[in-house]
Peptidase M20 dimerisation domain-containing protein (Cladophialophora psammophila CBS 110553), 936 residues
Amino acid sequence: MLITRTTRALGLFSSTIKSTSYSSFSRLAPFGQTYTRTLSTTTQATIPSYTVNKDRLWNTIHETAQWGATPDGGIRRLALTDTDKAVREWFVSTTQSLGCTVKVDEMGSLFATRAGISTSLPPIGIGSHLDTQPAGGRYDGILGVQAGIEILRVLEENGHQTYAPLAVIDWTNEEGARFNTGMVSSGVWSGRYALDYAHALPAAEDKTKKATLKSELERIGFLGSVPASYQANPLSAHFELHIEQGPVLEDEGKMVGVVTGVQSMGWLIVTVHGKNQHSGTCPMARRACALTSAARMISRVEEIALAADGLSTVGVINSWPQSPATVPHKVVFSVDLSHHSTEVRERMIAETSAEFGRIAQANKCTVEIEDIWNSPAVQFHEDCISCVREAARNAAGEDNVKEMMAGAGHDSVHTSDRCPTSMVFVPSKGGISHHPDEYSSPEQCALGAQVLLESVLRYDDQLKKAAL
Amino acid sequence: MLITRTTRALGLFSSTIKSTSYSSFSRLAPFGQTYTRTLSTTTQATIPSYTVNKDRLWNTIHETAQWGATPDGGIRRLALTDTDKAVREWFVSTTQSLGCTVKVDEMGSLFATRAGISTSLPPIGIGSHLDTQPAGGRYDGILGVQAGIEILRVLEENGHQTYAPLAVIDWTNEEGARFNTGMVSSGVWSGRYALDYAHALPAAEDKTKKATLKSELERIGFLGSVPASYQANPLSAHFELHIEQGPVLEDEGKMVGVVTGVQSMGWLIVTVHGKNQHSGTCPMARRACALTSAARMISRVEEIALAADGLSTVGVINSWPQSPATVPHKVVFSVDLSHHSTEVRERMIAETSAEFGRIAQANKCTVEIEDIWNSPAVQFHEDCISCVREAARNAAGEDNVKEMMAGAGHDSVHTSDRCPTSMVFVPSKGGISHHPDEYSSPEQCALGAQVLLESVLRYDDQLKKAAL
């Protein structure tokens, strides 16, 4: 058995991966939570009680769905395509009409900044993304940005100036569907990825590899000059409203998720080597069947995940030589393992590797395991979590609130490296996302926006009290 | 659960199937063992004791390997290519020089007939094939034809005229590698396939589908006028020497296999339907993972085959949508099941279907099972088997002979429908075939040819005694 921790290119899956993840090979060191600011959380909050406009938010979500709307009720709005250009132009003009100054950074991320009383504090970010998967829905990412715009409208109609500036952010290419690194712009901003790496990402649909993220930014007029950097363009904090993309809130009858972090996750690529043998003439006892071994491994990794209270998924499997009459000599499959705890996930990998080696040997096969991507668990900042917690309890009632970790990556993973961050989740119908059937109701969207608004106002209140 | 017995085109695997099998959809009715002749087996055999020339046979095998020889020691001689044309021309001139009359039938099969004393009996066939798999070896099929030519040489040098004529046969496209129906020419001869169906088979490498079996026969000058029919061009019997293509003789230390028939075999295509879910956010208990189900099915069918003393192989598996971060909604895999008994194989299919349904349901999935090809067990004719048995015992000693069923298809399956048939097996090193490493030693090849010679002479002796 050979276990390698490598950074090999995903050649095998390159045409099919729908990545919302980052690849370790392009990371820049150092990263991690490098800021030290902690606000007092004991100060009594004195925030105004504004209410978001449910219908206005709902209408905005569905009116702007015109850019990329598909007949099945979904959206196809791949990053930096003409539909993305259109919704970006709408974002710029809409936020400008609400009094914002719009900055475009080198990654094309849009920062619509509304001035605060303080002229020295960096803005509180309210960010998510307007791009979608190829057959995406109307809420993933979009709800977070549109809720930010709804917050601008509420503050505007109430004539409220926050202490810190606010920045509603549309992070470029969060999905990684067109340029195959997910959350890439927040990753450049946080220093996790090099700008050159990100700029050179080819457009997935362009076989000539001439269209890159940078050339597409230029083509649609959104290659900005503001450095894509937390140092040059800092944030005081980052809040993100998102649909859950899972069924937990719905199953448990909860209305709001207070997101305390993001679970540890990553992928193994497992290659089982056996021997080509004739299906009709080779006795069972003589065989070295790569797929018999693989089937046992797939069942075993599920048991390991269940025992550890983690998640395991084998999403990709293929056999060679693809002949019904030949015992396959090679099977390759992916293993996605995730757990709230980085340490427990590491133990899951160790156990999986040992068990796969044992199963291979028992079946006269060999196995190679490559750890091609892994992302440690992210713990969001207690200052932000407590703002979301209080806001959620206030808006939905304590019984309707669940504290949870996110199971998927979000731009907040990267902002969390550089500024206090937390997220708000609202239920996804049936746990469905990345699909036209993705749905959260007008009430669910509005409640999420309300919690986002109150979270931001609570954090602003803390910044103000800390400054005074 | 849906179980269908269909004849669907093998679209999914069409580019990858290495078929040595026939498809039920092209069968012509009626077929089956329709002849009634049975010879007395109690008559004392009085056959001459000629000996094949080991070195001459070995040299012929390896000299003719020039047509299609590959650097790794194998042969690539796809049916009706220029290399096949070359070896056919050699076959014709060699057998003619040995006094044979060569008939070419409408399928391009070559019948090199050596006259017997009787002018009314059809010839005793000694047949196999000279085509190979794309990366084939030097013995599969070839040994059977070259042993036939060695027999002609032995009889010629001993001035022996058999009672019945003999026909050394090169059956066209046995491998089915270039024209994707294996054993197709013996199948047309036996009436199992229509001539038009066989003629229209496209060459696998020709994307335009213009090159067909018939056009390629014309191109290389081997489209004969003799009807490809057991009625117009009958045989008294058919004997075939072949490498085992399995490790049983080698493992058991036996020198010759007396082949009593061909096991029942066939393919299921299994489609498991689950649900696309997010690997990071969907709890394990909520999942309907098509691959988790499939892995259990693959382990279960192996248990079923082991318990029934049969064989099961899952050679092809693929998942959809091939995303490591998505619980797959669909998995398709093949199941090859074989057993000496048609009835037991039917029970294996029934149990497999029931278990797959149960497993799918337990995992919130559904399953479709298509029985796309099945071939009942073939029992060879006792007259021919007894000739091979006596010849083998005489040549190798009783302790070195094993009676066995063939695990793979051969032209003898089809001839067995229309005339008494049996086969001789010799060991394959490591059970390897369809591979350049395929090997049987000079001694093993010669012993097989010796048994083939004596089998034919014994059968001829019986025909003579029955006629007199």
Notes: DSSP finds twelve helices and 17 strands in chain B.
